[in-house]
Amino acid sequence: MSIILRQFRCWKIKSEYLRTIRPKSTTTHPLARIKDLLERRPYLSNTLIAGFFCFAGDLTQQLLYNDNIKFAELATFTGMGLLFGPVGYVWYGKLDKWFPGTANKTILKKLLLDEIAWGPFFTTVVFYILPLAETKDKDYALSELKRKFLPAWLGSAAFWMIFQGINFKFLPLQYRVIYFMGLSFIFDTGLAIYRYQY
């Protein structure tokens, strides 16, 4: 009888332990799997999602305006997304830490800091760093930056102020970059058109 009780206690301890271990997602619905990945691995998921949307935005621009695919351009725009995924996740985490809450005044502070700090950084990467990554010379990259920085940054601010307000007001941190990158498909397509066609 004591052997049976010992086995039962072992089984009970083992089953209690197994309940504490978080199982891998067994759901097959794609959105549920993405949600699970965002919660378990936010850096990886935001990196991949941002890379995908930048890839899709530039590919859309190329299919609309070019006769053939320019793979170097596609690679650099995708690389930018892969870079901005984790950077964006950290950035939005810092904004939440610096300005906790969802009061309208707090949201306004986040929006202003986002557009004053993140906007120029992003715009500089697009119009100066990307041309360098595409093996253009520094003079070309600098002239692109000088010519396109202000219109692109102002356009970005106009586009993102409303959408980022929704982002900061209603979405938890793990969904912010994916929301941003989803809208970014539209924005990145327009940005790629402006970057490469004008």
What is the number of strand segments? 0
Distance between the first and last residues' Cα: 85 Å
Structural class, by secondary structure, is: mainly alpha
Instruction: Please outline the major beta sheet.
Output: none
Tell me, briefly, the overall form: globular
Order of helices and strands: HHHHHHH
Work out the helicity level. over 70%
Percent in strands = under 5%
- Helical segment count: 7
Low-confidence stretches: 17-23
Radius of gyration: 22 Å
Q: For this entry, what is the oligomeric state of its chains?
A: single chain
What is the residue-averaged pLDDT?
A: 83
Commentary on this structure:
The chain has 198 residues and is an all-alpha fold. It is built from 7 helices and no strands. Helix 5 (104-133) runs antiparallel to helix 6 (138-170). The chain is globular. 26% of the residues are buried. The model is unreliable at 17-23 (pLDDT under 50).
